[in-house]
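Sample intake sheet
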Amino acid sequence: RKNVSAQTAMDIDNEIRAIVDKCYETAKEMLVSNRHILDAMAEALIKYETIDAGQIDDIMEGKEPRPPHSPPSLDKKPDMTKPSPDTAA
């Protein structure tokens, strides 16, 4: 901290506390008023472990989240019939 009087430091601390308290109350109100969405997201995470933007959109619209898409790299198995550049002679 820069050199400020004890009173100024106390005023700064009080203002910061007021801002933090107000933000806490706002966040708490949002969570309480949207509890159904929070619960739906928790259920989707328990079911699927991860959720993507499309599933979040479904939940926010009050719909059942769609099943997740597998990344293409996990769906495809490497073609073992073709030599790799490292093994090609």
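Comment: The chain has a mean pLDDT of 88. Helices lie at 6-33, 35-48, 53-60, 72-75.
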